[in-house]
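#lab-general

N.A. 3:47 PM
ok so I finally got the sequence cleaned up, no stray characters, all 381 residues accounted for. can someone with queue access submit it? mine expired

B.Y. 3:52 PM
send it over

N.A. 3:53 PM
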Amino acid sequence: MTSTLPDPARSRAVLIGTASYRHLPQLPAVEANVVDLAAELCDATVWGLPVQHCTVVTDPQSPLAMLDPVHQAGDEATDTLIVYYAGHGMRDSESADLYLALGDSRDHLGYTAVAYQHLRSALRASRARRKVVVLDCCFSGRAARTLVGGDVLAAQAAVDGAFVLTASPRDRLALAPDGERYTAFTGELLTVLRGGVQDGPELIDLDTLYRVLEERLRAKNRPLPQRSQENGVGRLPFARNKARAGRRTPAGPVLAADVRAAMVATGLAVARALRAAGNSRDALPVLRLALQEQTTHGQGDLLAVQLELSELLAESGQVAEAVEVLELAFQQVHKLYGPEAILVCRRLADLLQESGNHIQACEVLKHALHIAEQGGPRTAL
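B.Y. 4:20 PM
back already:
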């Protein structure tokens, strides 16, 4: 097994998240899951996957919308293919098969969702030498009782030559704890990618990632992840270990842009910590200060700050200021294409529509479609 990270130029990632449902409980944290996970995978200090190689699929309404991006990425990837799904996992009333919920899915009715076997077929058809599947699915009622034994889901989800990592929470609260930005499993995954593993290897392989996630989730008394692997794929390096970053690298000159970028990143981290602790009031001024540190073309964490700040402002009833923040972000996404660009457009359009600016909202949505169809990463709206 290689001792280097997969080649970003020959690898692909498809991140699928269904947050909005008509007949099942809503999972708002899923939207933050896919957006922030995409940002980490594309971060050069984590992996450095080009944004055009990372497809974000939010709230797919049909099997085609969910599976077509996987087939396309599978055809393009020759090194590593990563497929992530967050949302409701379902069991049909007539079988023990796993189904991935769509926005219009109904509990116990497998024909209203996407059968996992179809996703598995797309993975098997891929040219990629290695495949990584991450399933952050929830189960409730009869489905929870059906999961007898610790490795049932991982065994069912297995793909030849692949590493499959599953969260397998039993209910919605276990998947998306109240007041937290992310689902329980993906929240821990992002923590590992952002902070690394103390005393861990320079490159975090999949087996190490699984062990660390299990330890942290066990410590919080949350559902434990499962895994299944073929051909020793668990030894595949998945991300750089930020806890060891730069230990042997001599210090160089500190540029003003570096200082500003560090201030933005620190402000974002502090605000998220305050928000997670339920202290949104103090998070607002921290985010406003971080927003003042403008970086070139809005790169780095600035866009994430704008999204976080606008969300808090809207929640506190300061809609006008939230619109101003998103309008600034909207001007930046004309030049910066990435998974967060679509989210900026969607949130700005929602706030404009709430404010009665329907024509402007339509123009913003048209731009989002232009990003998806022309210049940006392949994103399904």
